[in-house]
Amino acid sequence: MRATDLPHRLVAPVALACVTLACTPGGIALDGDDGAGESDTAADEIGDSEGSGSSEADSSSESGTDEAESGETETETGETGETGTETDTDWGDEWDDEDDFDTGTLPEPPEPTLNFLPTKRFAFWWDDTFAAEDYQLFQLLPGAAEAQPLGEPSTATNPTLLHQPLFRRLGASYHVRACNLDGCTDSDPMVVDAAIDGAIGHVKASNAQGGDWFGWDVALSLDGQTMAVSARREDGGVGGVGGDPNDESIGKAGAVYIFVRDAQGEWSEQAYIKSPVPKPETYFGEHIALSGDGNTLAVASPWEKSDAVGIGGDPDDHSAQQSGAAFVYVRGGPNLDQWSFQEYVKASNAEAYDRFGMSVALSGDGDLLAVGATGEDSLSTGFDGPMDNGWDVSSIGAVYLFERGLDDTWVEAHYVKASNAQGGDNFGEDLSISADGDTFAVSARYEDSGSGGVNGDQDDNSVGGSGAVYVFHRPDGPGSAWAQEAYVKAPHPTHGARFGNQIRLSADGDTLAVSSPEENSGATGIDGDPLDTSADDSGAVFLFRRDPMNQWSQQAYVKASNTGEEDFFGAGLGLSADGNVLAVGAHEEDSAGVGIDSAAAQDTDELDSSGAAYVFAFEDGAWSQVAYLKAPNTDDLDDFGSCVALSGDGETLAVGAYREDDTSKGVNNPPEEGLAFESGAVFLY
């Protein structure tokens, strides 16, 4: 304990910190603005402070005042999140400044406890102590010089930190300061250790069944409050929104589930979404995308079979195998909780085996939709060229841009081809659109050029399957002309590296992350030796930045801290809005580590394809790995990390494990090992 004689500022209990303040029935929840020491405090919940977690009290993990140190935090670097508190305190009572205690009596130090609750909540509690007039919670993040206050002093004795970025909290410490007019006394610190795993969110479908592959793809809104999850092999036979989830009459039709986070940090399923006309083995949900506000959802089904063309055709047709389709849904209603089908989208030149919908992306406002068709076979190049299909070569690939007007009608605006279109390149394998809708990137993971770096020789076809990414830009915004801005390759292309398997753009379009999960270097960490070919299919991620002159260059070469053969680092990829937080999944990584504090076990290789996720941050002018993550119920063949998604602020991370096996249903229900083979799950950190 430590007594201080710092000047005591008596604050009436109602005068709480007001950084982006939102009132709730139980008190006040404040959203931190990433300023050091600014968090939410209220009477029972301290909202968003780069960490979170809350569920049922009887499922929580407790860490007392003598817990061992571990974890990461972000106070000193400006990463203090939301806080909020609820309490039974009568906020209307006034303190008697003069007569509460005798002069010269310091408060007894509090003896707080810390419980880790799903999802992403830290719950504190302590008894009132002798001579204390008010209390203040402090947070010390790893690497920070000093602890920062979370909110203003109050009489609350049970604050809860909401929406905590668990991957940055291991090793953080917290203490409570009790004060009166004579001074303050601090509690012993509580250090975040392995018990933090109790705050990991565990999300399953409400109708989870073996073989559904829930968690095949995942998307988060920018604010991290809406999450879409696909189950590409789900068997429901009732079309549309909110149908019977227990109807299993159409095998592998696919489904998408919407989850939302409420003001108390609790997640729940909001919608169960199917194709309007479910068909067997069409894999609705192969890929999904959300608008920035989470109110527009695009769902791809590249195996869809209708021979319709263009917008609003007849989906009830089965004559064009793997022609593919995309479906648009919107959220509305008085409480913004009602989902409805808006549009059925096909290519204007749709043909069998075009696989329209192999990728899908939305702009921040949801009004620009991009859809990739990797099997399309026109040899035109650039924008809006001839759509004359029927060449002897296949899988050249194309991308289609659709725009939504003020009347909510959709039109096909542009037809986009690679500048060096060739058979087998699979242009359109993945897509990403900047939030402002003025930059988009397209990958062709089987492109063959051997020219490395940015804007090299596109006609060099010496390295088969090396992969490429194309960046397109309209510098004058909507209504102006699009043009190809960059042709991007790995610095040292290698055969079969699949550069461009996953791509992500930052909100402003100035940062591009590109994964290459079949890259072979045995390097580890940042900017190692890419010419070391000692670890086949270990995988890598490449980061590129655009300067004010619209010139692109490579910024970093990223490998896992435990690079291993056939880990496929880069199978999943996520990027924060500012481009400074990167999440990478390696779904066939084999360690036996568990949860957040698992670095010591990262080289064990005991559980085949259990999978892992890695978080990197760009701080002080350099990239570094800040977290190595495993599932809290790690098991072999779960493929944890097959997909990942980050919220815009980089503080909520969703990780899919589509082959996870437990039988629980819904959110944060106890898992039961191995009884629903490959039902799938998503974990929230």
Structure description:
The chain is built from no helices and 43 strands. The protein is 0% helix and 35% strand. The two termini are 32 Å apart. With 685 residues, the protein is mostly beta strands. It has 2 domains: 85 residues, Sandwich (Immunoglobulin-like); 485 residues, 7 Propeller (Methylamine Dehydrogenase, Chain H).
Short structural description:
Helix content is about 0%, strand content about 35%. It has about 675 residues and is mostly beta strands. Strands 2, 3, 4, 5, 6, 7, 8 and 11 form an eight-stranded mixed β-sheet that branches. Strands 1, 9, 10, 12, 13 and 14 form a six-stranded antiparallel β-sheet that branches.
Gross geometry: globular
Task: Please state the structural category.
Answer: mainly beta
Distance between the termini: 32 Å
Quaternary form? single chain
| CATH hierarchy, class of the largest domain | Mainly Beta
Using the 3D structure, state the CATH architecture of the largest domain: 7 Propeller
CATH H-level homologous superfamily name of the largest domain: Integrin alpha, N-terminal
Unreliable segments (pLDDT under 50, ≥5 consecutive)?
1-101
Question: Major β-sheet, in short?
Answer: 8 strands, mixed
What fraction, in percent, of the residue positions are helical? under 10%
Q: How many DSSP E strands?
A: 43
Number of domains: 2
Task: Tell me what portion of residues adopts beta-strand conformation.
Answer: 25-35%
The overall pLDDT, averaged over residues, is 88
CA radius of gyration is 26 Å
Number of helices: 0
Named CATH topology of the largest domain: Methylamine Dehydrogenase, Chain H
Biased composition (Acidic residues): 31-48, 64-102
Region (Disordered): 31-114, 512-532
Keywords: Kinase, Signal, Transferase
Pfam family, one: FG-GAP_2
